Amino acid sequence: EVQLVESGGGLVQPGGSLRLSCVASGFTFDRYTMNWFRQAPGKDLEWISTINPDGGFTSYADSVQGRFTISRDNAKNTMYLQMNNPKPEDTAVYFCAQHGTTPRGQGTQVTVSS
Fold it and tell me: What is the pLDDT of residues 27-55, one digit of tens each?
């Protein structure tokens, strides 16, 4: 069974930093492209970043380009999202998912506020 568990969220001040993690199990992690998504209150699910299986290709939504960095450690079956200079509009529940699928986990709440 595919399992993806997000963690690392919390309260962060604007301009601070936070690193989210996504631990995978139940599939061969290093063969899959992976995505990060987020959903803010009252808004639709938003794609924010993608990383290919070996980490050599990444892409970002315009809303986070230059501030967030996606990465992965295939030896640890873990993907990361480094959030630098977060803004209040980044407040959302963050999810990870295999490419081509919709998130199914609980996500991790990120609140950006002073």
Answer: 999 999 999 999 999 999 999 999 999 99
